[in-house]
Write a structure and sequence with these properties.
The complex is a heterodimer of chains A (232) and B (138). Chain A is an all-alpha fold and 232 residues long. Chain A has seven helices and no strands. Chain A has one domain. Chain A is globular and about 55 Å long. Chain A starts with a helix and ends with a helix. Chain B is an alpha/beta fold and 138 residues long. A five-stranded mixed beta sheet of chain B has the order 3-2-1-4-5. The relative contact order of chain B is 0.24. Chain B has one domain: Glutaredoxin (3-Layer(aba) Sandwich). The longest helix of chain B has 17 residues. Chain B has five helices and five strands. In chain B, β4 and β5 form a beta hairpin. Classes of the chains: A mainly alpha (232), B alpha/beta (138). Chains A and B meet through loops of A and α2, β5 and α5 of B.
């Protein structure tokens, strides 16, 4: 793994770990941090593996005949399959108390994603489509100023993480914080995707699917909890 | 692989001449069949060539490799739309200050180097640098 990619992983891990450490005993139950860290780690690794395998197969490379290629994650990780695998592992690890697990991880997941996107600044992968806005930036030696799209994404996710942290204690219905986190993560990517440069078709429909799934989860948690409320 | 002809040999001087004579911007990828990151970025380069091949010239240089292995690599990843050359001594990357493989260089029309990416390239960086090349061309 290259040092720039290692740095990106470190920044994402620092965001997730830092948020979980900060929330431990505050908005997360005391003693829950280690379990949540294990869950987050397992979900990330599963997402990375499945996303990489999907990307290899889509690119025409056989993971069975070239297993060493799997570790070259820089060359592509299919976002949709990675997200699905990570969510599946999340459900598996938190099956005894899924909504509390989702709520416990929600701000940390957004903080970790923010760290990952922010790492684009030192990976030469933070600029998007051209822009003449005052804060638009150009790469060295270029006169073309561009949207610092990964900074937008990181800031939006970070604001979302802080907002969820502040809201977590007041959210009466279990699972709503997790559902809102999914909504924020998917909506931020969906909103910024048109500012990114890519080769051909982008994964917008995955993010639209994420927004839709989050809205369904929100509605489910809202109505399910209301049904359980005792009659007045 | 049998339908892939032997890759024409090149060296630093020939590649410099090719870049200088190009009326289109050039994406120059230095690879080797034994290099694992090269295998991983090959589908991206094929995809980029399919999308931008009419405006950008894609050139591959198999460095410190063997002809048969290099031809098999081109066949396996369907890279026949990319112009490939064979540089057994690795003089092309050496002249560009690159050590090891892979490396991807971006040149404006006429041969001025715009950007150099060491290591496996990802979609975002590749798309951004191609966009930079095209916008420089106006």
């Amino acid at each position: 793994m290259e040092f720039t990619l290692l740095g990106a992983v470190a920044l994402a891990a620092a965001g997730t770990g830092g948020a979980l450490w900060f929330e431990g005993g505050r908005t997360n139950p005391p003693g829950s941090t280690r379990r949540l860290v294990d869950t987050a780690l397992a979900a990330c690794l599963a997402g990375l593996l499945v996303g990489r395998l999907a990307s290899m197969v889509a690119g025409g490379s056989n993971p069975l005949t070239h297993p060493a290629d799997i570790v070259i994650v820089r060359s592509g990780v299919d976002t949709g399959f990675a997200a699905l695998a990570a969510l599946l592992v999340l459900v598996l690890y938190g099956r005894h108390d899924p909504w509390a697990t989702a709520d416990g991880l929600a701000p940390a997941a957004l903080a970790g994603l923010a760290g990952w996107h922010l790492s684009g600044v030192f990976r030469d992968a933070w600029l998007g489509t051209p822009s003449s806005l005052p804060w638009a930036a150009a790469q060295a030696g270029s006169s073309v100023t561009r949207h610092p799209v990964e900074v937008y994404t990181a800031l939006a996710l970070l604001v979302g993480a802080v907002a969820l942290h502040l809201w977590k204690r007041r959210a009466a219905r279990a699972g709503m914080v997790g559902a809102v986190a999914l909504l924020i993560a998917a909506a931020v990517r969906l909103a910024t995707e048109h500012l990114r440069l890519s080769l051909g078709t982008g994964p917008e429909w995955w993010y639209a699917g994420g927004v839709a799934a989050a809205v369904v989860a929100l509605g489910w948690r809202f109505t399910a909890t209301r049904r359980r409320e005792p009659p007045a | 692989m049998d339908d892939i002809p032997a890759l024409p040999t090149t060296d630093a001087a020939a590649m410099t001449a090719l870049l200088a004579a190009s009326d289109r911007p050039v994406v120059l990828n230095v690879w080797a069949s034994w290099c694992i990151p090269c295998r991983s970025e090959a589908p991206l380069l094929r995809q980029a060539q399919a999308e931008f091949g009419d405006r950008v010239r894609f050139v591959g240089v198999a460095a410190r490799d063997e002809q048969d292995a290099a031809r098999a690599f081109v066949a396996e990843f369907g890279l026949t739309s990319i112009e490939h050359f064979f540089d057994s001594a690795g003089s092309v990357p050496g002249s560009l200050g690159a050590v090891g493989v892979p490396h991807t260089f971006f040149f404006a029309a006429g041969g001025a180097q715009v950007y150099h990416h060491a290591g496996a390239i990802d979609e975002g960086v590749l798309a951004l640098q191609i966009d930079e090349l095209l916008r420089r061309e106006g």
